[in-house]
Specification:
heterodimer, A: about 240 residues, mainly alpha, 2 domains, two-stranded antiparallel ribbon, two-stranded antiparallel sheet, 4 strands, elongated, B: about 260 residues, 2 strands, about 0% strand
Chain lengths: ~240, ~260
């Protein structure tokens, strides 16, 4: 997991949960902006489906109209449910924005909760255009709309890769001068990994902060930290 | 480098995030103190409403435009409160007024004129108001911080407007529900838009509905932009690591003395 600044009860977008099989997961509930945009994409797709069906069914006269009304029922009510349950928790719109519906416990969403959260769209929609859902999302720690609260579901980001450490540039390895605590080791490691993508001026500035430890300044200090970071990384494998 | 992260910025967990999640963090920061922010937004809106009321007597339609035009002014005290909230400080209304020099200036006039339609307003405001760079330094700074997040700042503005519209229509819908039919007949609502243009009543209703929705949305809009700004400083400057690095440096001398002994 990435290191983050802040106190123990700092405001965070990450929620740790323990799945029923005892696995610790960090969930990242998604806010109203990507969710509204995902909904919009799904709306366009549904309208597209209805339009295409309408073209075909218009050849069938009155029967066609009856079928079209039935089709509207299916597309409107079952489109989100079928995708959420059968397609890894994501409608096409959600997939575009890297979103996924899951149970609050972190497990894949089932038929019951998916039906509940999608039926209650009618309530979230009130009085117009999901105003109630928007207010509910902002009143809630995990951005749940009323349907999510009733069904015990969450919409999370799937594309947040945490804990995947990036590579350190090759170079000398040096044993750190002190016995650093695990957090301190993580700080040094994060700094070394992330400084590869920073502008050199800023790297020098940050490395200057560590001058009492490294005995060097600027780029030399940063090189020293990198050598320690390689050692720390080596001990972890 | 302008504004280093204070050691006591304990209120939020900072780390590099994707832009969408960074906006969410800002929303949550705003949410954590929303009653105060909504109060500040409402108080800041009052003088604008007074101005709009004056204009209304002359040109009702123009009054709405005036109210819209001066919204960037409302953002400023909100950002000031949020920037203190980041440090875990709740500032009182009295303090907010006393510290007005810190939020009233900093590209204020420009934000109401040449930059009135700045597409990523709430994301750029921290650079103007908190960092206070000017001239070419400011432009370079804006360009640097825009890297990889400018689009998200624009999207945030767009969605902020959409959410405001939703709330305006929502308020109209709510009143449509709650008012008894007899009241509606008295208001003669269907006659509000006709061949003679838009009735004054509709302009007045729009102004009130807009003011209410702005009071509710603006704190979150400013919060989202602030979240995005903080995240850019983490991504591009490792701002979040600074306090931890300082703590690490503090460990050095004591340890060396212990070794010497």
């Amino acid at each position: 997991m990435f290191l983050s600044s802040g106190g123990p009860d700092a405001i965070d977008t990450r929620f740790p949960v323990e799945t029923p099989d005892g696995i610790e997961l960090a969930l990242h509930p998604a806010g109203p902006i990507p969710r509204a945009l995902a909904w919009l994409i799904d709306l366009v797709i549904r309208i597209g489906i209805m339009f295409a069906l309408g073209m075909v069914l218009s050849f069938l006269g009155a029967t066609g109209v009856a079928l079209l009304i039935l089709a509207w029922f299916v597309v409107n009510w079952w489109y989100p449910v079928l995708f959420e349950v059968l397609s890894a928790g994501a409608t096409p719109g959600k997939k575009v924005f890297g979103l996924r519906v899951i149970h609050e416990q972190g497990t894949p969403v089932g038929w019951g909760p998916s039906i509940v959260r999608n039926l209650l769209r009618q309530v979230d929609f009130l009085p117009v255009a999901y105003a109630a859902g928007l207010v509910s999302m902002l009143c809630n720690q995990r951005f749940q709309r009323l349907g999510d609260l009733a069904a015990g579901t969450l919409v999370i980001y799937t594309n947040i890769a945490e804990g995947r450490n990036s590579e350190l540039p090759e170079g000398p390895i040096e044993t750190p001068p002190l016995a650093f605590s695990p957090e301190e080791q993580q700080t040094l490691l994060s700094f070394a990994e992330r400084s590869a993508k920073l502008n050199p001026e800023r790297v020098g500035e940050l490395a200057d902060l560590l001058q009492p430890l490294t005995g060097e300044t600027g780029a030399d200090s940063a090189a020293r930290v990198n050598a320690w970071a390689r050692w720390i990384k080596g001990t972890r494998h | 480098m302008p504004g280093r992260l204070p050691m006591n910025a304990e209120r939020v967990a900072l780390r590099p995030r994707p832009a969408a999640e960074a906006i969410d963090l800002g929303l949550k920061l705003a949410r954590a103190s929303w009653p105060r922010l909504v109060l500040v937004a409402a108080l800041a809106q009052l003088p604008l409403l007074a101005l709009a009321a004056l204009v209304f007597l002359w040109q009702p339609g123009l009054a709405l435009l005036v109210l819209l035009w001066f919204q960037p002014t409302v953002d400023r005290p909100l950002l000031h409160v949020l920037s203190r909230e980041l440090l875990g400080q709740r500032i009182s209304l009295r303090q907010l007024v006393r510290e007005r020099g810190q939020w009233w200036t900093g590209m204020h006039l420009a934000s109401l004129s040449v930059f009135r339609f700045h597409p990523a307003r709430s994301f750029t405001l921290p650079i103007w108001q908190l960092e206070r760079a000017s001239g070419s330094a400011r432009r370079a700074r804006t360009r640097a911080l825009n890297h990889g997040a400018g689009g998200s700042g624009v999207l945030l503005s767009l969605m902020g407007s959409v959410f405001e519209l939703i709330l305006i229509f929502g308020l109209f819908g709510l009143f449509g529900w709650l008012l008894p039919p007899s009241a509606w007949e008295g208001l003669n609502a269907p006659g509000w838009i006709g061949p003679g243009g838009v009735a004054d009543e509709l302009w007045a209703a729009l102004i009130v509905a807009y003011a209410i929705s702005a009071v509710l949305v603006e704190p979150f809009y400013v919060g989202g932009g602030f979240g995005l700004y903080l995240n850019q400083r983490c991504r591009l400057e490792c701002w979040d690591l600074e306090p931890a690095l300082r703590r690490l440096a503090e460990r050095a001398p004591g340890q060396r003395q212990a070794e010497a002994a």
